[in-house]
Amino acid sequence: MSGGDGQARDPDRLATVERLCRRGREHAREGDRSAALASYLEAWALIPEPRSSFGASTFILSALGGLLSGGGDLADAVDVLVRLSGRTASKGSAGELAGD
């Protein structure tokens, strides 16, 4: 889960992000989807801007996508991931991605 140069400059932050991601994976394996989402969102909040330059951001978005889509509403999952990634998308485009 190594990433951009910014993570190397702040090893404590990187360690916390990695710990939260491990915790998220454990919660997901145990079936505690809410706790897993909370761990990944907390990790996401610790990644500095621009998040796209950090390798951990891709991992976290992927994990969140898996958890959110597992909830059954792919359109809402896409909307959340689009917002977290900092991109903009209309509700229509999320529906199109979900096959609506």
Q: Between the first and last Cα atoms, what is the distance in angstroms?
A: 34 Å
Please state the structural category: mainly alpha
Biggest sheet features: none
> If helices are DSSP runs of H or I spanning 4 or more residues, what is the number of helices?
6
Q: Give the topology string: H per helix, E per strand.
A: HHHHHH
In terms of DSSP E residues, the strand content is under 5%
- Helix proportion: over 70%
Mean of residue pLDDT values: 77
Oligomer: single chain
Q: What's the total number of strands?
A: 0
User: What general outline do the C-alpha atoms trace?
Assistant: flat
What would you report as the Rg, rounded to the nearest angstrom?
14 Å
Low-confidence stretches: 2-8, 88-100
Textual characterization of the structure:
Helix 3 (33-46) runs antiparallel to helix 4 (55-69), helix 4 (55-69) runs antiparallel to helix 5 (74-85) and helix 5 (74-85) packs across helix 6. This protein has a domain at 5-72. Mean pLDDT is 77; it is low at 2-8 and 88-100. The chain contains 6 helices and no strands. With 100 residues, it is mostly helical. It has helices at 5-9, 11-29, 33-46, 55-69, 74-85, 91-98. Helices cover 73% and strands 0% of the residues. The longest helix has 19 residues, at 11-29. It is flat and about 40 Å long.
